[in-house]
Amino acid sequence: MDKTLLKAIEDLEFPTVLNQIAQRCITELGKEKARAIQMLSEEATIRFVLGQTSEYLSSLVSENRIPNHGFDRIDHEIKLLGIENTTLEIDGFRKIATICNTITTHKKFFSKFKEYYPLLNDTAGRIEMEPSISKEINGIIDRFGEVKDTASDTLFSIRREINRVKGKIGQSFASALNLYHGSDYLDEIRESVYENRRVLAVKAMYRRKVKGSVMGSSKTGSIVYIEPEATLNYSRELNNLEFDEKEEIQRLLHLLTDFIRPFRVSLDDYQSFLATIDVTAAKAKYAIDTKALLPEINSEKRLYLRDAYHPLLYLSNSLKNEKTFPQTIELHPENRIIVISGPNAGGKSITLKTIGLLQVMLQSGLLIPVHERSSVCLFDKIMTDIGDNQSIENHLSTYSYRLKNMNSFLKKCNANTLFLIDEFGTGSDPELGGALAEAFLEVFYERQAFGVITTHYANLKLLANELPYISNANMLFDGRTLEPTFQLVLGQAGSSFTFEVAQKNGIPYSLINKAKKKIERGKVRFDATIAKMQKERSRMAKTGSRLQEEESKAKEEAARLEKLNAKIKSKLENYQELYDHDQRMIHLGNKVEKVANTYFQNKKKRPLVAELLRIVETENSKRKKKSVKEDKAERVKKAQVAQEVQKEVKVIRQKKKVEKKNAISKEQNKPRPVFKIGDRVRMTDGKAVGTIDKLEKGKAVVNYGMFTTNVGVEQLELVEQKKNKR
Question: Crossing angle, helix 521-602 and helix 628-669, to 10 degrees?
């Protein structure tokens, strides 16, 4: 890899991104491939890899998920297959069979859903499937990793004979156990297993009484383990059969290895494909975690990053529940270079690194965390000069190293280069270093290179104002609180707020004033002017934002009122139509009532029919002929309006009912008056006023003049109290 590109990758912390992607892989080979991701040179390849990652991302956010691609790596098995007369172990065959089955599943899935995953299907389609590998392995080895009895006739016969001999051993051992147990030669445990053989647990004093082969004894020596004589012959036969079984299994595995050996390259392709799928899946998971996507890739040399996040900073802040500030920046042929200025700790370096890291990620096939309307282009070279680059090995100072780096820039910089330089020109005498930095910048400008630099030098800010295709930018700084806002603003240089920040940090004002006197008055005024303009810009931005918000609210309110007005107007028109229709029906009903009354008086049918026909013809002359469809629509509309009116009436009635209920409740909650004889009262639901003649046990006799009535005092309300005579 080119040294300049390698340095850029290190400066931009791209290996950290790759480590985070590797952590999201589920296979060891996938993790290795993720850490080894490099920038791609061909545009077609970049688009293809980005497209695959985007397709996998779509599967993660939908129900149509791509099948699991996990596998155990088979590097060792592939290496053995390349050596003649080698034999793979059973576990190796199991891993190979799993990989073959996984490949088959993926090929079928991508083929079935090729409309959704065309690029992934294209890659899967290049894999030549060999179904005979899996079939042959499954014919010999079962899913538990054991060689099947049916793998060969010989193995079947051997295992059948083994089972027969084991049965004989069991029978003969049981006979010996019963024989010696009755003679009290055996210990309480009776039997045990020694070196994978069943043995009798014989008391040491009787060891010569039991016929058989002594296999060992207990730690205390009180028990001797003896294999009965009757089972010895069968045990020897079993050993021979087990040896034959191992030989036959080894022969079968050797044949199976020779069968698979020609497919060594295919197996390597299978493993590589699944590892690539694992890396693609990890990149898609990383995209979800960082809210990344695939922006438009243009061929017009336009780099427009809208709401771009630094992925490492975003993930770090997410863990701490802190906000990450996005940046928006644009480079194009009419604005190729941007000079960012502003105070330290304002976000200049992070902005620079965000641009560079996102470009490296994109050209390495990774989705980037930007707004979906962003548009990016590709560069042949990405060069960076970020941070303190002292070289201990070469005994170079920071400035010497940076000059050496600038020399490399001058040799390689062209119209297809993106350069990113942090604190341009620092490390030497400010006057001389600034002049040299200005000369470098002019060369980059003449070469038509694209780039972003950060600086505190006033001469570079002035140069950006003078040249047509360079622009100034600044990181906003709140002049009142002296706190950074981490917001990039294009078109204006920023002040370093050197003296303001010093004053905030407790440096005595007398010392700051002394420092001001030591520098040229013009520089102080220039920086103060920039600072003042920046404060004014910040204030205007806040005011503009507030006005824009108020305007937006006013527009929303106007739209709401307009919509409400249209709705009310439509309702009024509908109600007016309904009212006119009802009035017409009343008028028509009156005419019919009049004719019916005349007929009731004279019982003459002919005048009745004539008058009714005349009324009908008169009404029909007023009607406009309509189609069946129009007539139906009008009837439906009238029904809807009538229904709506009924609902409104129902609501109004319900409202009045509630009001009346509340009024009664309020009346009931009023303190009851104490009635006395002679008080003028009336019933709560009546209008007549009477006089109380008698009161007794909550009852009152009320005299209304013409009659009297006996009612409960709770049904009365006081109209006028009896006046006391003086």
Answer: 100
The 8-class DSSP code of residue 205 comes to: G
- What's the chain's Rg over C-alpha atoms? 49
Q: Report the b/e string of 650-672 with b at 16+ CB within 10 A.
A: eeeeeeeeeeeeeeeeeeeeeee
Distance, in Å, from the CA atom of 548 to the CA atom of 554, rounded to the nearest integer, reads: 10
Q: CA-CA distance, 465 to 471, in Å (whole number)?
A: 6
Decide: 353 and 328 in contact? Cβ < 8 Å.
no
Q: Are 447 and 325 in contact (CB under 8 A)?
A: no
Query: Are β-strands 197-203 and 212-217 bridged in parallel, bridged antiparallel, or unpaired?
Result: unpaired
Location of structure tokens 């090729």: 114
Side chain identity at 498, as an amino acid letter? T
The distance from CA 134 to its chain's CA centroid, rounded to whole angstroms, is 38
SS (H, E, C) 540-561: HHHHHHHHHHHHHHHHHHHHHH
- Read off the tokens for 37: 């991701």
Distance CA 250, CA 673 (A): 114
Q: Residue 552, class by beta-carbon neighbours within 10 Å (0-12 exposed, 13-18 middle, 19+ buried)? A: exposed
What pLDDT is stored for residue 464 in this prediction?
Answer: 82
Task: Please state, in angstroms and rounded to a whole number, the distance separating the CA atoms of residues 483 and 343.
Answer: 10
225, 215 Cβ separation under 8 angstroms: yes
Low-confidence residues of the chain: pLDDT under 50:
390-395, 522, 726
Which pLDDT score, from 0 to 100, does residue 50 have?
Answer: 95
Dihedral sign, Cα of residue 402, residue 408, residue 410, residue 413: negative
Nearest by Cα to 472 from 447, 449, 454: 454
DSSP 299-312: SSS-EEEEEE--HH
DSSP structure class, residue 197: E
CB 169 within 8 A of CB 238: yes
**Cα–Cα distance for residue pair 498/509, rounded to 1 Å:** 13
What is the residue type of 27? Answer: T
Cα(137)–Cα(149) distance, integer angstroms? 14
Q: How far apart are the first and last CA of the chain?
A: 122
| Three-state DSSP state, 379 | coil
Residue carrying structure tokens 């053989």:
197
Gap between the Cα atoms of 127 and 112, Å rounded:
16
CB 310 within 8 A of CB 348: no
What is the model's pLDDT at position 531?
58
Q: Which string of DSSP letters, residue by residue, matches 218-270?
A: -SSSSEEEEEEHHHHHHHHHHHHHHHHHHHHHHHHHHHHHHHHGGGHHHHHHH
Distance, CA of 410 to CA of 385 (rounded, Å): 13
17 close to 312: Cβ distance less than 8 angstroms? yes
Location of structure tokens 């079947």:
156
